Amino acid sequence: MDNIKNKIYLCAICNVESGTCNEDCKFCTQSVKYKADIQRYKTKAIQSIVDEAIIARKNKAIGFCLVTAGKGLTDSRVEFICEAARAVNKEKLGLTLIACNGTATLEQLQELKKAGIANYNHNLESSKEYYENICTTHNWDERYQTCLNVKKAGLNLVCGGIFGLGETQEDRVSMLKSIASLNPKTVPLNFFHPNDALPFVKNSVSQSEAFELIKLAREMIPNAHKIMVAGGRELMFKENQYDVFKYGANSIVIGNYLTTQGKETSQDIQELENLGYTIAKSCDK
């Protein structure tokens, strides 16, 4: 393994607005429609966000993602994310900021960029053909257009999807083709984490299939700087979770996810170092 392939990029998520979404995405506990037993709050205190950013950097994260529940950006969300971004950047932590706030216009994204956001994460989630089976309150084309807006605004695009929602292999390939057409810098791959409150009761992907999907993503989106294994890593891969790097991934989310607990960060770091991986010190190095 050469030095580039041996380098792993760590990213942390900050759930700044939780469980307030009116959309009906069948994989998401953030929707108010499914009444999942999760924490729900409108906005997190700015100082709490800064504190989480400081901890994330101490835990070797180089990316810090500000996530809100809801279909997309509103004027108030833009204002809040900008305020949070400026507060985190003021600490000079060396973190690259990512915003993940749903559908967005070009003008809204330009405002985020002015505030110091470098990347915008908006996932296609599934293929265009299958999307109506997982969400009926908005359409796939809105998601794709937001990704185009991100590129036009001059932000780095973070765009991936979720596997295990009953989709076919053809759907998975179709989604990856669509992601590739957007030429994103980072591709987060999520694996469905079942919850009793959700319409989907199990993940339809096996562990061996999941490894092959990571490999396929790397092959189909070769220009991506990072193939990131994000939500569902621990549940899907269990004791084999660090094998994701053998299949083309070079990035993971550390700490907790939006509404589910992640692995203890110190364990991830120790395991990575024991396996001989180098943890990247910045997004591009």
What's the short version?
Helices cover 33% and strands 16% of the residues.
Descriptive account of the structure:
The protein is α/β, with parallel strands linked by helices. The protein has one domain: Aldolase class I (TIM Barrel, Alpha-Beta Barrel), CATH 3.20.20. The chain has helices at residues 46-58, 75-90, 106-114, 140-152, 169-182, 207-220, 233-237, 265-274, and strands spanning 7-17, 63-68, 96-100, 119-121, 156-158, 161-163, 186-191, 226-229, 251-254, 278-279. Strands 1, 2, 3, 4, 5, 6, 7, 8, 9 and 10 form a 10-stranded parallel β-sheet that branches. Helix 1 (46-58) packs across helix 2, helix 2 runs parallel beside helix 3 and helix 5 (169-182) runs parallel beside helix 6 (207-220).
Low-confidence stretches: none
In CATH, the architecture is: Alpha-Beta Barrel
For this structure, the quaternary state is: single chain
Give the helices and strands as they follow along the chain. EHEHEHEHEEHEHEHEHE
Number of DSSP strand runs: 10
**What's the average pLDDT?**
89
- CATH homologous superfamily, by name? Aldolase class I
- How large is the count of helical segments? 8
Shape: globular
Q: Can you give the helix content as a percent range?
A: 25-40%
In whole angstroms, how far apart are the ends? 17 Å
| Count of all domains | 1
